[in-house]
Amino acid sequence: MEGRNQTHVTEFILLGLSDQGEQQSLLFWLFLSMYLVTFTGNLLMILAIIMDSRLHTPMYFFLSNLSFSDICFTSTTVPKMLLNIQTQSRAISYEGCLSQMYFFMLFGGLDHFLLTVMAYDRFVAICHPLHYMVIINPKFCGILLLGSWILSVLVSLLHDLLILRLSFCTELEILHFFCELKQVIQLACSDRFLNDLAVYLALGCI
């Protein structure tokens, strides 16, 4: 097994969704249209909330941040997939793969935390309507948002740092169109126990 280890990984191969030419073209236009709809819809949501003073409330404050997070979340994977389809290339550098995993987990985690914060906001509005403006004040909203960012950054950083300790085999093909954490871990030849443990603990907590 040690003879198959690769000490300096330069790139991974993303196998994508299909390797058939006619399907590649269909997938390109399908994902491009979905990406543009997602990007435009969320951007319009953010602009509407910023421009309309009536929407300057805690709920819409968190909603605008959720829209921003959704834009970043889809932008970490879809553009690279579209580029790979257009250039007929499936390669992604080791550093690019680590970066993609980091930002994918960062904004994916941020989505979860923001949805939790929004659920808490609605809970207070329904169960404590008279104290809502006192509890959910601008300072507290900022603290909740900052906490969501910090937790997302720490979880993503932990997984990326644990990936750095792994050595990989010569088989570096990822059965996906982006660097998905679990897929990358499964390619490792070295001990993966800490990585698997961190994945299950993080998913359980989130």
Q: Structural class of the secondary elements?
A: mainly alpha
Identify the CATH class: Mainly Alpha
Helix count, DSSP H or I runs of 4 or more residues: 8
Cα gyration radius (Å): 20 Å
Strand order of the largest sheet: 2-1-3
Kindly state the percentage of residues in helix.
Answer: 55-70%
So what's the overall shape? Answer: flat
Low-confidence stretches: 1-6
Commentary on this structure:
- With 206 residues, the protein is mainly α.
- The chain has one domain: Rhopdopsin 7-helix transmembrane proteins.
- Helices cover 69% and strands 4% of the residues.
- It has helices at 21-51, 58-75, 78-87, 94-127, 132-135, 138-164, 181-186, 193-205, and strands at residues 11-14, 91-93, 173-174.
- A three-stranded mixed beta sheet has the order 2-1-3.
- The longest helix is centred in the middle third of the chain and has 34 residues, at 94-127.
- The two termini are 35 Å apart.
- The model is unreliable at 1-6 (pLDDT under 50).
In short:
The protein has 206 residues and is mainly alpha-helical. Helices cover 69% and strands 4% of the residues.
Fold blueprint:
Layout: E1 11-14, H1 21-51, H2 58-75, H3 78-87, E2 91-93, H4 94-127, H5 132-135, H6 138-164, E3 173-174, H7 181-186, H8 193-205
Parallel strand pairs: 1-3
Antiparallel strand pairs: 1-2
Helix pairs in contact: 1-2, 1-3, 2-4, 4-6, 6-8
